[in-house]
Design brief:
Radius of gyration: 31 Å
Largest sheet: 5 strands, parallel
Protein name: Replication-associated recombination protein A
InterPro entries: AAA+_ATPase, AAA_assoc_2, AAA_ATPase_RarA/MGS1/WRNIP1, ATPase_AAA_core, DNA_pol3_clamp-load_cplx_C, MgsA_C, P-loop_NTPase
Low-confidence stretches: 222-226, 422-426
Keywords: ATP-binding, Nucleotide-binding
Number of domains: 4
CATH class of the largest domain: Alpha Beta
CATH architecture of the largest domain: 3-Layer(aba) Sandwich
Mean pLDDT: 87
Number of strands: 7
Order of helices and strands: HHEHEHEHEHHEHEHHEHHHHHHHH
Structural class: alpha/beta
CATH superfamily of the largest domain: P-loop containing nucleotide triphosphate hydrolases
Organism: Limosilactobacillus panis DSM 6035
Number of helices: 18
Strand content: 5-15%
Pfam family, one: MgsA_C
Length: 426
Amino acid sequence: MRPRTLDEVVGQQHLVGPGKIIYRMVKARMLSSMILYGPPGTGKTSIASAIAGSTKYAFRKLNAATDSKKDLQIVAEEAKMSGTVILLLDEIHRLDKAKQDFLLPHLENGRIILIGATTENPYISINPAIRSRAQIFPVHPLSPDDIKVAIGRALTDKERGLGKMPIVLAANAEEELSQATNGDLRSVLNGLELAANSTDPGPDGKIHLTLPIIEESVQKKALSADKNGDGHYDVISAFQKSIRGSDVDAALHYLARLIEAGDLTSIVRRLMVTAYEDIGLANMPAVQRAVTAAQVAQQVGLPEARIPLADVVIELCLSPKSNSGINAIDGALAQVKEGGFGDIPPYLKDAHYKGAANLGHGVDYQFPHDHPQDWVAQQYLPDRIKGAQYYQPKQNGRFEQALGNQYWQLKRAQRQGLKGHHHPTN
């Protein structure tokens, strides 16, 4: 059922629909190399096949992980002899340097039009030398309506599909088929074929594909992708953003996807990061409870770990939020990286070694514990950046409100105490 022309591609109309980028490339016969990026079974190979069919160029398919440099050389020789070849390179994120170096000049001279296919984020996983020579196009999981179109074609096509078989697909079975694989058409067609070939005709001579038969034949696609796949990082990202956005039900949904994938390590790590990054000083007791829940989850393991995790995810969602901590340290880091640090005031320098006083180290240092309330006005930042202020207290929770009040009170006292008084800095 592989498409032979762009008109036969199901879904991905943002790329292959009339007037869209790949449609225009093919129509103008001005193809450039591209990387198609998206989940399995969503049409990456189909689009490459359709481009080749629509342009009548030779079409070859290799796998970057398993095929050798010699296989690439054969394709290059063919391109030299007979003109342009469209090369679909599956798993392009696995392309090693030797194969890449061989390919680059052929991409430059246009003999090989490379269509890379990958399930990994190309901006992270693909070498910049290849990436800069290709346009990156995302492909998306197919909608149930797209999948129903493909099912209809498969059931009626007598040449390449199941059209010669007397199949009757129940409406609820078609509905299940269109939604069971999370937009993976390959899995749908494989399941449909398995169901058709393994079901005996009924008394009326027809093959009745019912809901139970389809449910048995289709392996449902894991919602969270594999633990190392790009989709998995998207779920983790959505998990944190849902907690940050205070959406309990969305956060529990993404937590469930991560639990279903069995990746307790990622859940625990992300939960602790989220607690400190997004709730932080607005509710430090909740942050501590998140750490405790993460530790309990690791000790008891799945499936029981879901209980403390759910409790604390709900609490973090409904808690006041503050990112003042991460903003403060990132502000300090940014200034340090720009060279904004200056010399440490001499009275703050280490004075534990003999001769330190001769250098002025530790001289005139005021020991806070010798003063009322264990505090004294004293400049701690280097002169160059003595006015730096990284922490901006928020007012979203009582805990940080109290910290903020103390912060501003100390700032005011520091300014007043240092007026007209300057520590020696030489």
